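This section describes the prediction task in plain terms. A model, or a person checking by hand, is given the sequence of a single protein chain and must write out its three-dimensional structure as a string of tokens. No templates, partner chains or ligands are provided. The sample shown here is typical of the held-out split.
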Amino acid sequence: MRWLPAVLTTLTLLSACEAPQLTAPDAAYTPYPGSAQFADWSGADDGCGNKRAEILRTSSTVPVTYDREGSRCTVDTGRWLDPYTGRTYTDNDDIDIDIDIDHVIPKKWAWEHGAWRWSPEMRSRFANDNQNLLAVEDSANQSKGDRGPDEWMPPQTSYGCEYIRLFVTLADKYGLQMAAAEAREYDRIEEESCRDSDRLG
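The expected answer:
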């Protein structure tokens, strides 16, 4: 795994057309003040509902239906396979109670690894990036909390390889920095998870 050098004055987004906006280069680090720093859900890319509704629509394995009594963009039914647990959810109660939209890289983790220097626009872009959002069981999301893969991995071990690689890809994409020891541990986790995945596959 190749990590960018720990230089916080420059960020490069692999998939962006323009350089991200940063705060002043001499900005002092402050402890994570809460998720409000990353703004709320943005509108869906197709103009139907917000980002949560969009992820529910795009991740359902069957065509979704909508709440006809409310917004036409409010998802009512569908079928979702949670990659963290391997469980499947299908009805409206599941959407309201059991399904969360998880940030693969938690906001607090991102803040502590460089997002504290970002502009509000950059943080909103990160928080609403479809690549960084998964529909998962709420209990798994709560169990994960703000932890990275060195402290939490999906209970469904067959997803471990894909998860760690997605996490690393997103960290590279947003120029998030890790200490050398932390990066070595992520290397170890990726090697172990993907070796196990290859063996099971």
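For orientation: The chain has seven helices and six strands.
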